[in-house]
Amino acid sequence: MKKLIVASTSTVHGSGYLEYILPTLKNFFKEATTILFIPYARASGKTYDEYTSVARKAFATIGKEVVGIHEFDNPKDAVLKAEAIFTGGGNTFELVNQLYKNDILPDLTTAVENGTPYLGTSAGSNICGVTMMNTNDMPIVYPPSFKTLGFIPFNINAHYLDPNPDSTHMGETRETRIKEYHIFNETPVLGLREGSWLEVNGATITLRGSYTARLFKQGKEPVELDTNTEVSQYF
């Protein structure tokens, strides 16, 4: 049975890396001693070693070890043998590019479908959707495909922002961008605000955290979903 936490962000304002969600992760990863970290998104341009060190330090506070996938000679075996998996945020284009380059998308699917607990934050959450097409990131590389893992039947727009009525910024809002997407694409999109996450148990998807999420479907008005809502009922 699939067990996932699909989080909008790794860090909320005023707290440390993963700090806001560590109590949840302690229970989520309770059966695992070591977590396999996938640093391919290279947050802020960090090296794989630097990024893995950040994750290692955070998980040490709840008694978990972290090892980077890049430390293995065979990344496919690393995924299939992992007790638990965490894919961090950064640039979704580069993350997906490396997942295809190392041919581990099928292995991630196998592992998670077989019950390996999976945590994604930001880019690592974007890849849980049908495609990565609702990322906010710049296309710094060109992955072979936008198709991703499809663990949930919609796409994620992580770090979803509401319009600021006091702002003088004249650019498009997130809602505008998603509406543009739905001119050409049918896949629903969930705008996941900072500090919120999805808890996935098999086919059941539940919104957790302190904030509502905004669900967009082609040709329909957006719907606000309260925290603790079972999102899967909308699909």
Task: Describe the structure in brief.
This protein is of the alpha/beta class and 235 residues long.
Describe it for me?
- With 235 residues, the chain is an alpha/beta fold.
- The chain is 26% helix and 20% strand.
- It contains seven helices and eleven strands.
- It has helices spanning 22-28, 48-60, 75-81, 92-101, 105-113, 123-126, 174-184; strands at 3-7, 34-38, 65-68, 85-87, 118-121, 155-158, 189-192, 196-201, 204-209, 213-216, 223-225.
- The strands form two sheets. A seven-stranded mixed sheet has the order 3-2-4-5-1-8-9. Strands 6-7-10-11 form a four-stranded mixed sheet.
- The protein is globular.
- The mean pLDDT is 96.
